[in-house]
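Late entry, evening session. Most of the bench is empty. Finally got around to the prediction I had been postponing all week. Sequence below, unchanged from the version circulated by S.P.
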Amino acid sequence: MKESRLVLIILLITFVIYSVFYLSTRDVEIAYNQAMPWQSYVNDQGKTVVFDLTMDESTLAESMRLFGTEVEASLFEDKDQKKTLEIFFSNTKVGGISAKVIINLALNDQQFNYLSDNIKETEVMPSGNKKTIFNQAGESSMFGLTISALTFIPSANLSADTLLGLFKKPARVELVEPGVEYWYYPSKGLRIIVDAERKEILEFYNL
């Protein structure tokens, strides 16, 4: 009997707390989201800012607070031994937009040497590029690395008219091949790959 009464009291308290919270917040206006891809800009230091992340300044840890903690970290090395450390967010949502996000991290020789001692697996891809993934110690060492570039791939296809409505007219358009164009926005630190057959890709980086 006492246990039933205790459960009833706990449920009543929970209901009261929820009711007070609901009544006190139902009329609160949701703040306007300032972290949308078309709101990127180049700051006074010449660095691109998107989603409140500053290229060559913000860290992986800061991006994970925005995009989530489910990531895949890989080091890619091409035939010319050019190395690119990528963090892949396979499924995230920003401002109501579902997307995939790829972050490139700046990597110096000392950091590369540390990662080389914490390799989990390496494979050679069909392109000939080498892909390396790391153990937990290697991945943990990446949290403080700075973001050098950010790629945003919306889940939904965006038409040219939609892109123009959101980002306005690009400063320059480059035809790469039939059906594929590069739209450049220097003031936004942005290049959009517009592909008639595939999803659009937004690339943010310092110019």
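Two things to note before I forget:
The CA atoms of residues 7 and 13 lie 10 Å apart.
The chain has five helices and 13 strands.
Will write this up properly tomorrow.
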